[in-house]
Amino acid sequence: MSPVAMALLLAASMGAFGVLAWRRWRLLRLARPEARFDQLGERFRRMMRMGVGQQRMSRYPLAGLAHKAIFFGFIVLLLRSLILFARGFVDAPGFGYWVFDSGTLLGNVYALVKDVYVVLVLAGVGVFAYMRLVARTRRLTLSAEGVLILVIIATMMIADVVYDAAGLALHHPGAGFSPWEPLGSLAAPAFAWMGDGAKAFAWHAGFWVHVSLVLGFLNLLPLSKHFHIITGLPNVFFQDLTPPGRLRPIADIEGKIERGETLGLRTLDDLTWKGVLDLYSCTECGRCTDHCPAAKTGKILSPKAITVDLRNHLYATGSSRGATKAVEGEGGGVTLEDIVPAVVNPEALWACTTCRACEQECPLNISYVDKIVDMRRHLVMERGENPASLNGAFQSMERAGNPYAAGAEDRLKWAEGLEVPVLSDLPEGAKDRVLFWVGCAPAYDARARGIARAMVKLLNHAKVDWCCLGAEECCTGDAARRAGNEFLFQAMATGNVETLKRYGVTKILTVCAHCFNSLGNEYPDFGGAFEVVHHTQFLAALVREGRLTPTHRVETSLVYHDACYLGRHNDVYDAPREVLRSVPGVTLVEAAASRDRGMCCGAGGAQMFKEEEHGTQRVSEARTIQLVQTGAKTIASACPFCMRMLTDAVAKQGDGAIAQMDVAEVLLKSIEGEIA
Ligand code: SF4
Ligand code: SF4
Known about the structure:
By secondary structure, the protein is mainly alpha-helical. Helices cover 52% and strands 5% of the residues. The protein folds into four domains: 3-237, Up-down Bundle (Fumarate Reductase Cytochrome B subunit); 253-385, Fumarate Reductase Iron-sulfur Protein, Chain B, domain 2; 401-539, Rossmann fold, CATH 3.40.50; 544-672, Rossmann fold.
């Protein structure tokens, strides 16, 4: 075409891209370190499945198909762009690096595949244009940038067809339809009537528009949400491989305080490089906010907005180690604004239930709970700025070892009338016994006590050797940790691990999804590596082994509510359903939002112990409506927090026809005929 023009265009655009990419790379390199280079094989597998395989895209079928068309189209058309760059230098219209030259077998096959993807990419662009401009899909922000990118992609595709068609008309007049170049040969007659000069002009125009837009688009990437085209796969590759329910501990809290180091996430300086990569990778698709229970119920929290606002702040400010716009402090150094409240409204932060619905939906594996809890950590431990309604729970956990302002001496009240083997009475310790970790809610919440009582009866029916800690059991600290009080959590975790080890406990059974998560996923960081099993898993195994046989019919239609800390945090979806299906008479129905799309009950993230943030509806009420809409007569749950939230919401709705039971209670009813 024109070697000089091509060289100048390439040099200018690659130079500009180099500068932009360097700025982004520098911020990444200067961020806090984080170890994400382990288990490379597993990382690669996940990247292939989630990134290249676009696994999560299918959760939104139409948008998913459109994105897949564009994603794979870009991969196919990358070669086309490289071929066109080369044709800018050589005077050979069919050049394709010899392997893909026009007329060769591979060249023909590639030309056909390329044409198919040009159509698919145009269709994908059409879908997104429809969603943005016509349907005005709520989760997508209508921005000039988004529309501009769609116009650029569509123009690139059309320019490619013009280049092929005008080229055929110019170099092979009257050639007719070619199955290898369907688009070009079908469009060629549109240029056939022109003179050679006009055909050559159209051919050159198609070429230069295509290559210019490709290179222009490349430069737009680091400046836009489409940076994910570059950072997306690395972000999926470097995802957290530890259990989703585990929060990273802050090491040496007291030492950090003495050294004046920040606790939690205060400014951009406290982000790790993976945190920065998360910000770079957000496509602004809004899937996270679309499923956020806080956003759904009118709270000001929007996970997407948190990421986008943090990214804008990062681009505007940089970090003190690599400031793009240095803010001079009194000492002449760089000071950065505190993220809360400058970028993130504290009310949004405190509305989060840590349910992970956002993370489950995000196609780029961007994490939220860790950042939100890290911001809370800074507010609570350094500024003492937690919601006042949490103070009571914090104080009670500190003084009495539970968030219910109840005495340790009352911990066994739930078991009145039952024979309960307490470890301190057993000279041999926990030897060969499974420890029933009762949890604070079943110990102190009047309704949740029924869960613990049902569980004990089932254990006795199955002749399980079990024991419990009695008054020595202390809150796991889950709520303190999710509320940002890491100091309190670590004190409680360390104390509990000491107690459990002292009695030689190896296996723990819990009826609470939050205890299950903390004990199983977080206590290993404090030296407590126990086998932890949730009661639904334990009961499913007992039924399977024939040690429990549900016999009495429980005639009810029943909908099971997935607890976030059992499902999304620990991937336990089938065990509760298996138990319920084993009960004769039960008709199990599913809510439209169930399993990994189940909506939170509103209790997690310490919400159970604080006032809900301002919104249009309580989360528990929204979830209860979804469950009631199934027409089921009974709501079953597998976590005492869920039970409390749903029971209150059902009572508020005044729907006395709906029963609310734990999975263990349903099973016991079938075994005993009724619950005493
Ligand atoms: S964890 Fe749940 S409540 Fe928190 S931002 Fe994500 S979806 Fe919203
Ligand atoms: S965080 Fe993920 S789900 Fe949310 S807008 Fe960004 S890419 Fe989409």
